[in-house]
Design a protein that fits this description.
single chain, about 130 residues, 4-stranded mixed β-sheet, 4 helices, about 25% helix, about 35% strand
Amino acid sequence: MSNLNTVEIKAFVPARDFDLSKRFYADLGFTLAWASDDLAYFHAGSSSFLLQRFHVKEHAENFMMHLLVEDVDAWWQQVCDRRIGEKYGVRVLPPEDRPWGMRDFTVDDPTGVLWRIGQDIEGRQP
């Protein structure tokens, strides 16, 4: 029997303007742990992704990330306090309870990647 255990999985998130995107993700609440000229490793708690200096419009505008958090309202408050939408010229939509058992909000990054940041609604089954 083979050992097929995994350690982690990360998405490679595209960036049209790599430096702007690095600032955006730091403002959003991620920690920049490491960066080179073409790649940056971000994390928040045990969640992480790799930001890459890579852009294909059709790919970026159809790319979506989902971040499951403990307190969606705290994340939303940070987005509001840091004026993410205004500062980066991106769309942000406020938290809503979704029929699939999540309370989440959306924010587009400067490249067009859609992020859904949410938490499970207590007592609801997804």
